[in-house]
Structures are given as C-alpha cells and as structure tokens.
Write a structure and sequence with these properties.
The complex is a heterodimer of chains A (about 375) and B (about 280). By secondary structure, chain A is of the alpha+beta class. Chain A has ten helices and 20 strands. Chain B is an all-alpha fold. The model of chain B has no long low-confidence stretch (mean pLDDT about 85). The chains are: A alpha+beta (about 375), B mainly alpha (about 280). The structure holds adenosine-5'-triphosphate and magnesium ion (MG). Adenosine-5'-triphosphate (ATP) binds near residues 18, 40, 42 and 43 of chain A.
Chain lengths: ~375, ~280
C-alpha cells in the first residue's frame, strides 16, 4: 500500500507563495500526471513529495503515515530527473547499484538486483559503459533503472522525456506505460506534453498558479472541463472559446445563449444563478464545429486553411474575438481562404462557462456532490 | 585580391613575431640558467647563447652537499603535506560553501578572500609567535603549518567555484539514493573535481615549493632548510665570489620536479569530465 496524500500543502520561497494550499490523494498503484503551464509549481509539488523540498505548512502522508520530516530514501521514493543526472564517472552498473550499495540491508543482493533491473530496461549489454557513451534514450533508461532498482513504492518523474526527440519520446512513452503495468507501483509524472498526459495517466491533475484546477481521468478532463482554464489547456488544437450572452433562462432546465457568429443556441444547463444578458463564454472543440458555405448568416471570413494530410484546420475570423476560431475539417476540404461561411454545432457539444470561468452544471446528469452526501447520511 | 593576401601575410608575420618575443621573454631566463649550469670557472663570464659542452661538475658539487640533498627532501615533505592538508580542508570547506545554503555564506567567502590579501610580511611576526608557542621553530612542520594557512584561501575559493558548477540534480539524485553528505562529497563530487583538484593542487604545490620568506624565518639550521633558502645560502670560496655555476645547477635541479609534476597532471587538467551527467 503506497497511496500518497497531500494535506493543505503550502510552499513559500522567501516571500513568494508558490503553492497556496493543495490537497490531493494519489491511490496505490495509480499513474498520476501533473500538467500545467510553465512555472505553475509542478516540479515544486513533485519535489515536495520526493522530500527534496520541505513544505512551509501542511503534511504529506505515504501509506497512511506522516512522512513530512523523512528523507527521500526513508519515504521509499525513486525519482527520475529531467536532466537524467547520472553519475558521469560511474558505469551504468555502478549508477544503478549506487543506491543499493548504500543500503546496508541489501548487501549481497546488489548484483542480482542490478541485473534484474537491467533486464527489465534492456540495459544488460550496456552495463559496463559510461553515461557519456550512451544515447539520450539509453541514458533515460539508466535514470529510470537507478530510480527503480531499490523497488521504491513510489516513482516520481519530472519531465523525463522532454530532452528526447519525437520518435524516441513515443517509444519511451510506451515503455513507461509497460513498466507501470509490470511494477504496479504508484507513479507520479510531470509533463508539458498533452499526449503523454492523456495516454499515460489514470488521473490527470491540472495545476494553475500553484492550485489544482481539476483532477480527473483524461476522459473527464476532455469531455467535462470544470473551468475555462482546463478547457483551454487540455486538447490540441485548443478549444475555441467564444464570447456569448444569456438571452433567457428556464431555471433548472435550459438556457438560451446568444453566441457570437452562431446565433441563438439552447443548451441544457442550469444558469439559474445568472441574470438575463449576463456575459459568458462558450467552448467548442475544433472537431465539433460544422461549417456551412451558405446560409442566412454566412458572414465569417476564412483567413487560413491548413492541410495536414489526414485532416485540415480552417481558421475563421470572428468579430469581437482576438483569436481565430479553429475548425477541424475532414479532407478533401472544399473550403478556401477568403470565403464567407457560417458555423453550426450540436447544442450538447457546447461547453458553457459563466463569467468567473466555472462550467455551468448540466441538467439531467445528476451529480453526487457534498450536499447530496450529507442528505444521504442524515 | 593581392592586397588582401599581403595583409594576411603581414598579420601572420606580426603574430608570429609577437609569439616569438613572448617566448623569448619567458623562456630565455630559464634557458640561460641551464646554459650557465654547464659552465665552470672563467667560462662563466663568456656570453654564449648555445650549449656547447655538457659539464656536470656543478651538479656533482651541489648534489655532493648533504645539506642541499636534505633540503630537497624537506621541500618535498613540506610541499606534499601542505597540499594534502589544504586539499582535505579545501574540499570539505568548498562543499559547505558551494552546496549548502546557510546564513553568512557570502561573508565567510569574503573573509577567506580577505585573509589571502594580507602581504606575507604583515603576518610574519604574528605567525612567528604562534610557531614558537607550538614549539615548532626550526622544524619543517612549522612550514607545513604556515603554507597550509596561506594556500587555503586560494584553494577554498577555486574549489568552491568548481563545486558550485556541478549540477544540482546530481546531488539530489544522490540524496534520493540515500547518500549522506559525506558519501555525496567523496563518491560523487570529488571524482568529478579531478581537473579542479589537479589545478589547485599543482598551484599550491608550486607556491609551497618556491616559498622563501617563511622558510627563511622559521628554520635555523641547514638540515631543516627548504630548497629556495638553501639555494640562496649557497656561498662560494670567499665573500666576494658568487658561485653562479652552483646556483644555476641547484635551480635547475629543483625546477625539474615541478616540470615533471605538471607533465603528470597535465592530462588530468582537462575539462569534459562531467560529460554524460546531464543532457546535452
Ligand atoms: N528554489 C526556489 N527559490 C525560489 N523560487 C523558486 C524555487 N524553485 C522554484 N521557484 C519558483 O516556483 C515557481 C514554480 O516552479 P516549478 O519549478 O515548480 O515550476 P514548473 O511548473 O515545474 O515549471 P516548468 O514546467 O517550467 O518546469 C516558479 O515561479 C519558480 O520561479
Ligand atoms: Mg519543472
């Protein structure tokens, strides 16, 4: 059992509060990915879990025990650094064995363990080489091997693949996924790469400015982003965020929204807390927009068409919006730059956010939230 | 086109001339010492620029003096001990100053640098008292002690600079592997500090080997002298005769160990030892 629990973790460097207060629970054997823009505190959070950084306030528990004051080794964590950080003067064997040798309890088993690790990572033929004689991918595997040799309960990865080229990255990604299946240890993984996050994670944690925006499976984050930030962050190309205005609401049932460039759309959301005429934002993924060449309000100008082979992206200029609207079209694509078109989308595909950036609750899909739980227990 | 070529030739020639001048300036004195060491008697007063005869009389005379030979051993002992101690203290101090965050780190570094700025003469009398108090007068250990003191600031500074440049992740990886600070220092950092240690060690050795003032002040008898003092005290048959031949031969003899050391460590003074630690 090696679940990780962060309780009201706060981290302040000098006077700057980097992480105001984070609560998070990572289950045993789970693969959790931290994503977020640069400087949002992903690495800091990971280093707090590793024990390389001390929290200013709050507690960290591993397997139900408070480990806030323990060293990384006592916590039973292994870490893979972004820059690999292999010991350059030691051979691959010595790199992997270093931690094992320091552990008095394992004396005698060192060779066996190193060889086992090397076999899992296909490093057996490289054991006598020095790090400088290895390729990037091989170095990365040694770094992983060093972290896993002691069989830590928790493995931490800080952007482990960001120095590799695209094809090697794909290959290492699948290898990490296989490794997780095999070891079944808890893994926490920091990345910038959307695809890595979506493909590897059991659970994605989206961080923004030191706080957690949303925690959920890749499916949940993509389909039901809780906030504008998550909506804009997950998905590539980005979700289109179009300004809109409430026309009229029927509380608890639906709301009529006037969307820039699309006319009035009725969506089944509860907007009872909002006044008629209030400004809001509608989110639409590029693959969920349909373009029609003719129509009463075909007034949006196509400014660019990108042909990618398997699909094409059409960029439209929307009055009142700084960014261009992106639409994914199947190929062959009939649309040309300079044409005027109209937009259309299925109402249930719309994501609707209020002025504060929170997603409006869907009507009908009954969600279990805290008030329900309390009601049930009474 | 022709003018361009001409300019290129002139520039090259100028550069060559400059190099030759610098070479002459730096190497000539040493060359002349070697030249002189092979002469004897009145030959010394002829000005030659080429070595014509190999006459080892001077060398035999110098090495025949038992006090000179013992001064060489003293020098080797003193310089080696001073370097070893300075390295041991320097490395541990550099670890603390370079890798551990504590209040007053900058101040400590400035003080270390400040200490090395005093001229030797200024500390001479104070140091003399200290050595008397330790009962080390006329003992090579006094020199070990004083040389350690004056090579340490420089050693600490250079090693701290090098220690700071080692990647932070390397240390963190060691921490995650469960290494204590001492293990990190000895198993991870020191093996990577080879070039830095070779450079500072060599410079400290040369400084200790050539030091004159302390050596003259803190020793009394001929068998406790170090080489620079011994050479300075070589006297001729009469008060008015300076035995240039002997002096030069002795100088050449004591320079040889340094040259050999530099040649040995030259290969270690190469960068790129950290290649492969981090991406790139
Ligand atoms: N030791 C430190 N002292 C002061 N500020 C720090 C320190 N370490 C990190 N920070 C600050 O904390 C913030 C978060 O840093 P962190 O490294 O966690 O970002 P990140 O999310 O990992 O970013 P990236 O994706 O670029 O790696 C940054 O603004 C950074 O400047
Ligand atoms: Mg980071």
């Amino acid at each position: 059992m090696a679940c990780v629990e962060l309780k009201k973790i706060n981290k302040t460097f000098g006077k700057i509060e980097i992480i105001p207060s984070v609560d998070l629970r990572v289950e045993d054997g789970e693969f959790v990915v931290f994503v977020g823009p640069s400087g949002c505190g992903k690495s800091t959070l990971l280093r707090l879990i590793a024990g390389l950084e001390e929290p200013t306030a709050g507690d960290i528990e591993i397997a139900g025990e408070v480990v806030t004051d323990l060293s990384p080794k006592e916590r039973g964590v292994g870490m893979v650094f972004q820059s690999y950080a292999l010991y350059p003067h030691m051979s691959v064997y010595e790199n992997i064995a270093f931690g094992l040798k320091l552990d008095k309890a394992n004396k005698g088993k060192v060779r066996e363990w190193v060889e086992k690790t090397a076999e899992v990572l296909q490093l057996t033929s490289l054991l006598q080489r020095k790090p400088r004689e290895l390729s990037g991918g091989q170095r990365q595997r040694v770094a992983i091997g060093r972290a896993m040799a002691r069989e830590p309960q928790i493995m931490l990865f800080d952007e482990p693949l960001s120095n590799l080229d695209a094809s090697l990255r794909v290959q290492m990604r699948t290898e990490i996924a296989k490794l997780h299946d095999r070891l079944q240890s808890t893994m926490i993984y920091v990345t910038h790469d959307q695809v890595e996050a979506m493909t590897l994670a059991d659970k994605i944690v989206v961080l923004n400015g030191g706080h957690i925006e949303q925690v959920g499976t890749p499916y949940e984050l993509y389909e039901t982003p809780a906030s504008l930030f998550v909506a804009g962050f997950i998905g590539s190309p980005k979700m289109n965020l179009i300004p809109a205005r409430i026309k009229s609401t029927s509380p608890g049932r639906s709301v009529d929204v006037e969307v820039c460039g699309m006319g009035t759309v009725t969506v089944e959301r509860d907007a009872s807390h909002m006044a008629n005429g209030a400004a809001m934002t509608v989110g639409l993924r590029p693959e969920h927009i349909r373009i029609s060449l003719s129509g009463p309000d075909a007034g949006l100008e196509v400014v660019n068409v990108e042909y990618l082979g398997n699909e094409a992206y059409v960029y439209l200029e929307m009055p009142g919006m700084d960014e261009l609207v992106v639409v994914r079209e199947s190929v062959p694509c009939q649309i040309r730059t300079g044409q005027r078109v109209a937009l259309d989308a299925e109402p249930e595909r719309l994501h609707v956010f209020d002025a504060d950036g929170h997603s409006l609750p869907r009507v009908g899909t009954h969600r279990v939230d805290e008030t329900d739980l309390q009601a049930a227990s009474n | 086109m022709n003018r361009k070529l001409l300019r290129k030739i002139v520039a090259k020639a100028g550069f060559g001339l400059l190099l030759a001048a610098i070479m002459l300036f730096t190497v000539f004195p040493f060359y002349y010492a070697i030249l002189t060491s092979f002469k004897s008697g009145s030959e010394l007063f002829n000005i030659d620029y080429w070595i014509t005869t190999f006459n080892f009389e001077n060398y035999q005379a110098v090495l025949g003096q038992s006090s000179f030979v013992s001064s060489i051993w003293n020098s080797i002992l003193v310089a080696t001990c001073a370097v070893a101690i300075a390295m041991a203290f320097g490395l541990t101090a550099a670890y603390a100053l370079g890798r551990v965050h504590f209040r007053g780190r900058g101040t400590v570094l400035m003080i270390v640098l400040g200490v090395s700025m005093f001229p030797q003469v200024a500390v001479l009398s104070g140091l003399f008292e200290v050595i008397r108090a330790f009962d080390l007068y006329n003992d090579p250990l006094a020199l070990v002690f004083s040389y350690t003191i004056f090579t340490l600031p420089f050693t600490v500074w250079v090693l701290t600079t090098f220690m700071r440049q080692l990647p932070k992740e390397l240390e963190e990886a060691a921490i995650v592997d469960g290494a204590s600070p001492m293990v990190t220092l000895f198993k991870v950092f020191i093996p990577l500090m080879g070039p830095a240690m070779a450079t500072t060690g060599l410079l400290a050795f040369i400084a200790a080997w050539n030091e004159f003032l302390f050596a003259l002040t803190f020793t009394l008898t001929d068998d406790q002298r170090t080489v620079p003092v011994a050479i300075a005290l070589i006297t001729g048959g009469s008060q008015h005769e300076l035995p240039w031949g002997h002096l030069m031969a002795a100088s050449v003899i004591v320079t040889v160990p340094l040259v050999v050391l530099v040649l040995i460590f030259q290969r270690r003074i190469v960068s790129g030892l950290t290649a492969g630690a981090v991406k790139g």
